Amino acid sequence: MKKYALISVSDKTGVVDFAAGLTKAGFTILSTGGTHKAIADAGIAVTEVSEVTKFPECLDGRLKTLHPVVHGGILARRDMPEHMNFLAEYGIDVIDLVCINLYPFKETVMKTDDLATIIENIDIGGPAMIRSAAKNNASVAVVVDNADFDEILNQLQNGGITKDCRFKLAAKAYAHTAAYDALIASYLGNVAGLPKFPEKYTITYEKQQDLRYGENPHQDAVFYREILAQPSDLVNAKQIHGKELSFNNINDTHGAVELLREFADGDPTIVAIKHATPCGAGTAKTIYEAWTKAFNADPTSIFGGIIAANTEIDEATATEIDKIFVEIVVAPSYSETALKILQGKKNIRLLVLDVKQQTAGKGFKKVSGGLLIQDSDNNLINEIEVVTTRKPTEKEMQDMLFAMKIVKHIKSNGIAIGKDGQSIGLAGGQTNRIWATKQAIDHAKEFLGDTALKGATLASDAFFPFADCVEEAHKAGITAIIQPGGSQNDHLSIEKCNEYGIAMVFTGIRHFRH
User: Fold this and answer.
1) Alpha helices for 7-96 (secondary structure H)
2) Is 366 a catalytic residue?
3) Which of these is catalytic: 275, 345, 356, 445?
4) Are the C-beta atoms of 173 and 130 separated by less than 8 Å?
5) Which tens digits make up the pLDDT trace of 190-239?
6) 275 a catalytic residue
7) Which residues contact 215 (CB under 8 A, 6 or more apart)?
8) In percent, how much of the chain has pLDDT > 70?
9) Helix (H) or strand (E) segment spanning residue 260
10) Whole-structure pTM value
11) Contact 13/104 with Cβ under 8 angstroms?
């Protein structure tokens, strides 16, 4: 009995050699369109599917393989006489191997917004053949990944494709079509304006890389990328020096990148992150000044941390970074001299990424047996409402907004104290807000001295339930406070601010980070 292999691929990498190997193993090759041409041009015997179906490819290529001769040959159970008798009656040959990869929908979406072109790159016959072959894996091998070509040919040379191999190929095939359909559904759903949180939610990611381990050595880990990730997303950062990134490296760098987005289009800014938590930030007229502010804000915690910049790292900044141990530096570029300096350390990871303002997206959190999904927190304020007798000065307003950008990325309960474009006291993850306030003040005193707090501003990620935080701010010399407002006891904090001459503004938007 003749053995048939049907090959129809968009990605033709290695397909000619694969077809040659199958021919050597005794297969007759069936193919369509461009794949047929590539194989035939290589001098390999290949038959057009239309010659077998006795029906031409039509509708501009939309209809090629959706035919009983094709699917009958794939789906027929070899162990059922009635199936085989049916094939014999209608002159249908069995197809023992199906090699398909699908129309490049993802690549098309990334190249064009033309909906008609995108629709034409939705594969119909390919998924149908893949699913048919996968369902009949007891007899049919389905190949959807060109990386499997060598293994298939090796097995054919050593007794044939095993049952276990066919089953694994089938599982891989269903994962392939599931991801393909999920991407199409997501894209078309967005275009059609369907609910962003549908009744059934399917997402698909591509493996970026295996990781040595997770947060701890006993945990396996991997890094996946969104199929339609944006250019300024962390997954597209280019590593130009240093050791391979770990799970914790990637997670912590994500925190740095997300905070840096708040300053993406502003003055030169440096942010420092430790354990995914901000430990310093500085904005200035030069990146060197920004570095000095961020470093001085907490020279202890920055050790072993992540540094992210929104402008090029210059020689002076690189010289200072080189004096301490940091895990990673992220910047849109490095001067030639700066790069040479930083590359002097073998293990420091240097990443190139031009961080842009956050676009609309979703945030995910895995819980036991489920998944929490929410809109990304892309807004900083709703509107500024001055609620005290004294209005903030222009400088205080700038410092408050600077501090609010930082506290937005601190684990709740979070407090950020800012002055002159520098974080001077940060605290978060506390079970009550007064502890966070006291801790932020203590950090400022420890690293910058009491005088740094005079005329500083304080930002809170959520409202003050009592006036105790205002009391502590006044004792420290803080003169302006920014917070969401919304507590039943807002009047207590407002009254206390008025008593002390502190300016307070409400933003109308909370930034819990759990």
Assistant:
1) 15-24, 33-41, 49-53, 68-75, 81-90
2) no
3) 275
4) yes
5) 888 888 888 888 888 889 999 989 999 999 999 998 887 888 899 999 99
6) yes
7) 221, 247, 248, 251
8) 98
9) helix 247-261
10) 0.84
11) no
